[in-house]
Design goal:
The protein is α/β, with parallel strands linked by helices. It folds into 3 domains: 253 residues, no CATH class; 157 residues, Transcription Regulator spoIIAA (2-Layer Sandwich), CATH 3.30.750; 185 residues, Beta-carbonic Anhydrase, Chain A. Helices cover 55% and strands 9% of the residues. The strands form 3 sheets. It has a 6-stranded mixed β-sheet. A 4-stranded mixed β-sheet has the order 3-4-5-6. The two termini are 40 Å apart. It catalyses: hydrogencarbonate + H(+) = CO2 + H2O. This is carbonic anhydrase. Belongs to the beta-class carbonic anhydrase family.
Length: 788
């Protein structure tokens, strides 16, 4: 056995393997980074050379030291508002000192391993902050695009914009609008467009093309003023002599915002390329901090991980951090040798680029997502705070509102009283959420609306019920009963009156299970729970669902149907709507008709996942004749649905296997059907390996036969011509399962034995036919303490 390659040798080997991907990717990122860096420097009121210095340092230093393989760092739009404010308040030299201090603070963050903590900040606040920055950039740069000058603040920009629109004229406006048009149109090129044309970065194309137009036509527009070479611009930062408190706030603001943006970008890029090495978030903070420290010392802008450049890097095919480092090298070469070209770029062109960048920070997809999760108010408040006050205040306001909304969800309950549709009908009280002492006054007001003597159903959909709310609801219930009314507590949540009473009735040694969701509970549990507590039939009585009175006595099906429509139909409807035009199940699932085996529960599946076939004994007679029902499902699953998996699932205590052991009369329908299990019985008696392992594991005779029966039915499936061909071609795999009812645990057939599905050591045999058993052997022992 050869010794492992030394680290240096391994690194050189990796470099040789990846350079053919990283080199072209670095050139693409370089071409995108140059115009973006210049534009961000303009928006930050910083020297243009500061943008190029930051881009070079971000690529080389953060790229080499950071914890993300594909992230590309540089000056970012997310910091433009902060930097512009710092430059206006303290001057450029002190701003560079703030960047150095923020970098050192980021290094401290990394070494103290707080990287993951930054991800705990509400996405609504982060997206709101970025959107607020985007709005601020757009409001300011629109004036430049329209041939004017941006105002001092966002409100002034808004007030001046109508006049600017009326007076818009001149070549600057045409150049700025042309940039925006190119950036919007480029991603929408026809599919027939050659790939090499689509591969040209849109920002580079827009800036170069319109700069050439301005030069050729000698347009009278304001152009970029670099103010000297990059080497001349390198200077040490200036230490502050006043307003130390404001400087400290600036340091923490830059460090925190830059860290959050970098970490979020790193996580996003990692998701873009499956198989990319996982990001070390703490190392990423150290790399970003080192980059900011050096960038500030050299007179550059603050840097962060930038999603635009990083996503471009990933899309261009980069394999390692070498791409980011090389892109920084190309920027150094450009900055030293070709800086004169930069001074030909019209300011309106960079302004148009910034307007597009700012607009993209306002992401409609994020708005929809946050609206679905009820966090849109946090997003809006953060935007308004960032735009019309300042970034730090806006973020703090957003965080405060997010915390208040979380607190409200935790301690606030929704309480709704529904009047009956007809006189003398049943009143409904729906309580959802966490019912605690803060909600007792509202609960009291709502319950006071119900007249004495009325029939009342209380739907208690609670996951928390504190003592104050418990006492109040119990006392009201008793008073209402004494006044001649009826009260039925319908508990849907995991904690309510019944649960509280049961939890206190048994004493400290009582270990009875707590409430479970109704979709996991038999009718006999949740429809009878109220009866066990109050002495009357819970789930019985009157219903107002259709305006008529119903009696649910001895009719659990109708009660279950009404429960489905009240609780589940609305939740499952979107999924069923998507499936209305057809199905594409993931598995053909053959199991026993036994009522205790519920396929969707034991597989955690939902509508559209399983093509289920059930019969007595989970038999697979696929030969034809009287057994065509099962064969038809096999052929339909293979030829029409193209399922990738076929499952046979047996279970413990199987009545069919017990009947086979008793040799049922062959003249009955059941006897003729169970003749299909004769092969299983014969092979079990002959010492089938599955049965032998089951016997050694302590399973009873009936369960041994049930396990052998699963293996035999899989054999029969494997001999079906269509199944055999699909298995040989790798289109289908066969899986055997066994459900132990007493412990509610699943076992998977792995070669010639069943192993717990909870183990993480399942081998290839778990997904192959037992006709070709694997040699992998696992002990039939459940680490969670199930029966062996």
């Amino acid at each position: 056995m050869s010794a492992p390659a030394p680290p240096l040798s391994a690194a050189l080997t990796s470099l040789r393997e990846n350079i053919r991907y990283d080199l072209p990717a670095s050139l693409v990122v370089f071409l995108v980074a140059v115009p973006l860096s210049l534009g961000i420097a303009v928006a930050s009121d910083a020297p243009l050379t500061a943008g190029l210095i930051a881009a070079a340092v971000g690529g080389i230093v953060a790229g080499a030291l950071g914890g993300s393989a594909l992230q590309v760092s540089g000056p970012a739009a997310g910091l433009t508002v902060i930097v512009a404010d710092l430059v206006n308040r303290f001057g450029w030299g002190v701003t560079c000192a703030i960047t150095v201090a923020a970098g050192l603070l980021q290094i401290v963050f990394g070494f103290t391993k707080v990287g993951r903590a930054a991800l705990a900040i509400s996405p609504a606040v982060v997206h709101g902050m970025l959107a607020g920055i985007g709005v601020t950039i757009v409001l300011g740069q629109l004036h430049v695009v329209l041939g004017g000058e941006q105002q001092d603040d966002a409100l002034a920009n808004v007030l001046a914009l109508p006049g600017q629109l009326i007076s818009a004229h001149g070549p600057a406006t045409m150049l700025g609008l042309a940039v925006i048009a190119i950036l919007l149109a480029w991603p929408r090129l026809p599919k027939a467009t050659p790939a090499w044309i689509k591969g040209i970065p849109a920002p580079l194309l827009a800036v170069v093309a319109l700069t050439v137009v301005a030069v050729v036509l000698a347009l009278p527009v304001v152009r970029v003023e670099v103010g000297g070479s990059v080497l001349d611009a390198i200077s040490l930062p200036i230490l502050p002599t006043s307003e130390i408190g404001g400087v400290i706030v600036g340091v923490f603001t830059v460090a925190i915002i830059a860290s959050i943006e970098s970490l979020l970008s790193a996580v996003a890029v990692e998701r873009m390329r499956p198989g990319t090495p996982s990001t070390n978030l703490d190392r990423e903070l150290v790399g970003q901090g080192a980059g900011n420290t050096l960038s500030g010392l050299l007179g550059g802008l603050p840097i962060t991980g930038v999603i635009v450049r990083s996503s471009t890097n990933a899309a261009a095919g980069a394999r390692s951090r070498v791409s980011a480092i090389l892109h920084g090298v190309w920027i150094v070469v450009f900055s030293v040798a070709l800086l004169g070209l930069v001074e030909q770029i019209p300011m309106a062109v960079l302004a148009g680029l910034l307007v597009h960048i700012g607009a993209k920070l306002v992401n409609v997809g994020h708005m929809r997502e946050l609206h679905r999760h009820g966090e849109f108010p946090v997003y809006v408040v953060t935007i308004l705070g960032v735009v019309f006050i300042d970034l730090l205040t806006g973020v703090l306001i957003g965080l405060g509102l997010a915390l208040l909304m979380v607190l409200r969800r935790v301690v606030w309950a929704s309480i709704e009283v529904q009047e009956p549709r007809s006189e003398g009908g049943t009143w409904h009280v729906v309580v959802e959420g966490a019912l605690c002492f803060l909600s007792v006054p509202r609960l009291s007001r709502r319950l006071a609306q119900i007249p004495e003597g009325a029939d009342v159903v209380v739907d208690l959909v609670t996951d928390y019920l504190d003592h104050a709310a418990y006492d109040h609801l119990s006392e009201w219930e008793e008073r209402h009963r004494l006044a001649g009314g009826t009260v039925r507590i319908d508990e849907v949540g995991t904690m309510g009156l019944v649960a509280r009473r049961e939890s206190t009735a048994g004493g400290p040694g009582d270990r009875r299970p707590g409430p479970v969701p109704r979709f996991l509970s038999p009718w006999s549990v949740w429809q009878a729970q109220h009866d066990a507590t109050y002495g009357q039939g819970w789930g019985h009585g009157h219903s107002e669902d259709d305006g008529h009175e119903h009696s649910d006595d001895a009719d659990p099906i109708l009660t279950g149907l009404r429960e489905y429509h009240r609780r589940a139909a609305g939740l499952v409807a979107p999924y069923l709507s998507d499936l209305a035009d057809g199905q594409a199940p993931h598995a053909w699932f053959l199991t026993c008709s036994d009522s205790r085996v519920v396929p969707n529960v034991i597989t955690s599946s939902g509508p559209g996942d399983l093509f289920t076939v059930r019969n007595v004994g989970n038999l697979a007679p696929v030969g034809g004749g009287a057994d065509d029902s099962v064969g038809a499902t096999v052929e339909y699953a293979l030829d029409t649905l193209h399922v990738p998996t076929m499952v046979v699932c047996g279970h413990s205590g199987c009545g069919a296997m017990q009947a086979v052991s008793r040799e049922v009369d062959a003249d009955t329908s059941l006897g003729r059907w169970l003749g299909g299990a004769a092969e299983s019985t014969s092979r079990n008696r002959g010492g089938h390996p599955v049965g032998e392992h089951a016997r050694a594991g302590g399973w009873g005779d009936v369960d041994q036969l049930a396990m052998v029966n699963v293996a035999v039915q899989l054999d029969r499936l494997a001999r079906h011509p269509g199944v055999a061909a699909a298995v040989d071609e790798g289109r289908v795999r066969l899986v055997g399962l066994f459900f132990d009812i007493a412990t509610a645990r699943m076992y998977v057939l792995d070669g010639d034995r069943f192993v717990p599905a909870s183990t993480d050591r399942l081998g290839a045999g778990a997904s192959s036919t037992p006709a070709e058993p694997t040699t992998t052997a696992f002990p039939v022992a459940d680490p969670d303490g199930a029966r062996t």
